Structure formats: C-alpha cells, structure tokens
Amino acid sequence: MLVEVCANSLESARNAERAGADRIELCSELGVGGITPSVGLIQLVKKELTIPVHVLIRPRGGHFTYSDAEFEVMRSDILACKALGVQGIVSGVLIEDFTVDVERMKVLVELAKPLHFTFHRAFDWVAGPLEAIKQLEDLGVQTILTSGGETAAAEGIKNLAAWQQKTSMTLMPGGGVSPQNASNFKDIGLKAIHCSGTSFGREVKLSGKISMNSSKHLVEHQVAVSNVDTLKAIVRAVK
Question: 125 vs 1, 85, 163, CA distance in Å?
Fold first, then answer.
C-alpha cells in the first residue's frame, strides 16, 4: 500500500523518507489545510529526498473558488514546480455551487502533464461525489485525496469503499489517518493512504507575549484581500 506523507517542512520531509514513506505531498501551513510551499523549500526537499515529491498548489487558505488573479498564480506555481523537477501536482478548484470547476481543472491538469495529478480534499465539499469522480477521471486526474465526505477518513470509510468501486482512479483516504486505523483502509481494498504523523515540539515559553495568530483571518467562506480605499486613506494620512 502506498503511503503518502503530508510534509510541511524540510525536517518533516526528511522524517517521512526515514520512516519509509513512498512519497510526500509538500505544503505549508497545515492549520489552514495547507498552501503552496516556497520555492526554496521545494528546491531543498528535491535536492535531499530520493522518493517522489508532489507539491500542493493552493494560493491561500479558505474556500476553493478562486479569482482570476489567484488562478493565474496557481498556473505560474505549476510551471515553477515542473521546472524544479517535482513528480506530482496536488490541487483542486470548485465553483460556488460546490461542483468541480471543470474548465479550470482542465487547464491545470493539462499544464501539469506529464506529472501525476491529485485532486485534493476540496473533493469533500462537492455536492455530487459520483458525478465529480466521473468528471475528474475524464480530465485525466489520477488520484483523489478524500476523507469520504466526513470530518475524518475513518468516519467516511464506507463511502470510500463504495466510491472506489466506481473508478479506476486511486481514492486516497486522508484526514485523521493514524497507526490505529491505517490498516482498515488496506482491508477494504484501497491502494494508498495520506497522513502527516504530526507531533509538536521545540516549545518556546510565551507567557506575557502577545499572540501573533490572527483569528480574524481564519475565515473559510470569504477571502481576505487588501482594500484599495483603506490603503489610500492610510497613504493620505501620512504623505
């Protein structure tokens, strides 16, 4: 069974290979579900690892319906990843009605060729999973990363088993995959799993320090963007 590790740093990538993972999905900011990692991180990981490196193409946290500018960034990131020699691309685009954005996905899949293409957990928001599976298969997507439409893959295991019967693509369970439940996915005939194996360390005592986390920016149903009028007012105030 293929084991893909979601690695959020050079250290995590090294640990994944040491642990025997078959490949990694490289990303940053796991707290928002992952975003595209820096070019420097991709370069270093590619230099050190011998296992395949797939890279997440997601320009921001939040929902999966992107503006023209964001989509332009995604296309540019795919070209950069190809130039850096990665083996796979992980991405996904939805329309506001939570169906697959077929036109934009076609662009991304074609741009990524001949790399392996995984449609990520945006799949767990789609309104019609079976229709989406057919659409993605027709587009040439090879893998779907999904928790079976539930918060955790263990809860969606019946959906995963049923959906896998409908497609030749690889359905790869992700979300809460652990040593305790990993073999359950193999038992139902799935061919791959996705996990992070995250633990926390290197603690710094922050007593008395202000928080640098910003809860006002953790909004899934809207997108934060610099406001022209607000910025003009600030510029006028000091110029």
Answer: 26, 31, 15
Q: Where are the domains of the chain?
A: 2-201+212-238
152, burial (CB in 10 Å: exposed 0-12, middle 13-18, buried 19+): middle
Q: What does the pLDDT look like over 181-198, one tens digit per residue?
A: 999 999 999 999 999 999
Read out DSSP for 212-238? Answer: ---GGG--SSS-----HHHHHHHHHHH
Q: Which residues contact 148 (CB under 8 A, 6 or more apart)?
A: 124, 155, 156, 157, 158, 159, 160, 163, 173
SS3 assignment, position 177: coil
* 172/122 Cα distance (integer angstroms): 13
pLDDT, one tens digit per residue, over 33-76 is 999 999 999 999 999 999 999 999 999 999 999 999 999 999 99
Q: How far apart are CA 110 and CA 214, in angstroms?
A: 37
CATH number for 2-201+212-238: choose from 3.20.20.380, 3.40.50.720, 3.30.230.10, 3.40.50.150: 3.20.20.380
At 72, list the tokens: 């332009």
Nearest 5°: the CA angle 47, 43, 32 is: 125
pTM to 2 decimal places: 0.94
